[in-house]
Amino acid sequence: MQLDRAEALRYLGYGTHAPDERTDALLSDCARELEGLSTVRHTARRYADFAWDENGVSIGGARFESRQLAAALAGCEQAIAFCATLGAAADLLRMRYLQTDLTKAAVMDAAQSAYIEQVCDEACAALRLRCAREGYALTPRFSPGYGDLPLSDQPMLLALANAPKQIGLTCSESFMLTPQKSVTAIIGLTRGEPACGGERCAVCEGRETCRFRRR
Known about the structure:
- The protein is 40% helix and 20% strand.
- By secondary structure, the protein is of the alpha+beta class.
- It has a single domain, classed as NADH Oxidase (3-Layer(aba) Sandwich).
- A hairpin with a 2-residue loop joins strand 3 (56-59) and strand 4.
């Protein structure tokens, strides 16, 4: 998978502007290093044991109190606990450049942020195709720390996905993911149109902080 350079530049704050030669060269170097990583992993565990109400959702016996998550998964029949990581090698790369080249460290950080989103998008695209064969549509990913879903729910989500064993993903006592460039999320499966996305974005109470909204 090739790095989405435009997305990495967006993380760096360039927007639609072209980077300078130095940044462009550093980004090419970072892309080569990321595309050679062998520690990229993802896992997804599907649960038919799922229920929702206006205050939250229950998945596999775990309860997530979040009105925004409940609204996003309203009408869903099942849910998926999803996790992905670039692995410890990505953290080591970034730390190495923090000690030797701060500019490259910043570019690497942005490139890794873009790359983990690509990993998630690619994995979810495969899930979407597989579930579509059963007549299901997928809602967008909803992660702890977004909206009113607290970071303190990370351990429950990691356990639901069996992420520590499957992909070596854990979290600290402050609920930060380790390795750092990782994503955890809940995805709903619905027979109809997902409750989150499309025209509903215009009236969503979390629209101003949504990381999937393009400004």
